């Protein structure tokens, strides 16, 4: 039998081309003006195994911002900073079924904690929990942590995207002030938002996503360096959220279609993995109605079927 990576090398190029036309049925995000400049028909994928071998196809040589993918790793950092009990006194553990930027359910429960850490409201609360004495220090800690996970010292913030989102992020700002009023957010709201906008604007390529995903696939161990970068329990928590909320209100459909923990972002990135085996990074800026890369979802679902990657 042909090894999985060899089969991927053979199949990926043609499968990327089969999924690429799906982009015509979606739309590039425009609510962050800088994101609207992305080329809509790009599609790229990087798959990485524990030997450090990559299989890649399509448009893998351009960078994009993490956006909501960063939320998985800020959650992990907040858990490492404060532990489970403190973090889950401020955010819940349940999917919402609403859009990622919805405020609908914020008033539903008492205390008024956001339903989960992967919707915007929850991720903003998580940003407020990152340790550090200033916005700069907190952002630098996040960036360093992400660099270590990606094995890439060159990760930086895309300042154009950051400024674009800071100037137009009124909906996020309104949620943050609401949470301040309810006593869930503490400290300077604008500073908390600044930390949030910055980590959403960290620039990566699909190979970086694959490497970060590989660490999750190995329960926090970086198989390429042998270092345990995240305590196993916190990866377990993150993985569970990725299954239940990682693709926003499209998570159920994706769990049935692909059956892999995943996290998407509005720039069109998707980070996913095959537990114990492979880290995967995909990008395709054209999004479906739920805000997930339309061609990216198509590609991952097809690969999952072909390679029997579903956990279920
Ligand atoms: N930075 C984006 C926002 O706050 C992240 C959302 C996303 O990727 N879905 O709206």
Automatic annotation (TrEMBL):
User: Subunit notes for this chain?
Assistant: Homotetramer.
Q: What is this protein called?
A: Glutaminase
Recorded hits in Pfam families, A to Z, give:
Glutaminase (PF04960)
* EC annotation from Swiss-Prot or TrEMBL: 3.5.1.2
Encoding gene (name): glsA
Residues where substrate binds:
68, 120, 165, 172, 196, 248, 266
Question: What InterPro entries does the record point to?
Answer: Beta-lactam/transpept-like, Glutaminase
Q: Which reaction does it catalyse?
A: L-glutamine + H2O = L-glutamate + NH4(+)
Q: Which UniProt keywords apply?
A: Acetylation, Hydrolase
Q: Which family, according to the similarity comment?
A: Belongs to the glutaminase family.
HAMAP family per the UniProt record, alphabetical: Glutaminase
């Amino acid at each position: 039998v042909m090894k999985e990576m060899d089969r991927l090398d053979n199949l990926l190029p043609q499968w990327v081309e089969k999924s690429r036309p799906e982009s015509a049925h979606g739309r590039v995000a425009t609510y962050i003006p800088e994101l609207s400049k992305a080329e809509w028909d790009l599609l790229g994928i990087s798959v990485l195994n524990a030997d450090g071998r990559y299989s890649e196809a399509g448009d893998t040589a351009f960078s994009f911002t993490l956006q909501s993918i960063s939320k998985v790793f800020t959650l992990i950092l907040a858990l490492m900073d404060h532990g489970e009990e403190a973090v889950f006194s401020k955010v819940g553990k349940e999917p919402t079924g609403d859009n990622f930027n919805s405020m609908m359910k914020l008033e539903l429960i008492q205390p008024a904690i956001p339903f989960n850490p992967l919707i915007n409201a929850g991720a903003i609360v998580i940003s407020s929990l990152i340790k550090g004495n200033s916005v700069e220090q907190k952002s630098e800690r996040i960036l360093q942590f992400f660099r270590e996970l990606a094995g890439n010292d060159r990760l930086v913030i895309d300042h154009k995207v950051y400024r674009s989102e800071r100037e137009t992020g009124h909906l996020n700002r309104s949620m943050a002030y609401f949470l301040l009023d309810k006593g869930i957010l503490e400290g300077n709201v604008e500073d908390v938002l600044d930390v949030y906008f910055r980590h959403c604007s960290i620039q990566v390529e699909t190979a970086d996503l694959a490497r970060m995903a590989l660490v999750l696939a190995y329960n926090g161990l970086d198989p390429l360096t042998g270092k345990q970068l995240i305590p196993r329990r916190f990866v377990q928590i993150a993985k569970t959220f990725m299954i239940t909320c990682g693709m926003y209100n499209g998570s159920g459909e994706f769990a049935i279609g692909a059956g892999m923990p995943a996290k998407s972002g509005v720039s069109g990135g998707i980070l996913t993995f095959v537990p114990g085996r492979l880290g995967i990074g995909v990008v395709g800026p054209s999004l479906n109605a739920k805000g997930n890369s339309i061609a990216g979802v198509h590609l991952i679902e097809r690969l999952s079927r072909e390679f029997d990657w579903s956990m279920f």
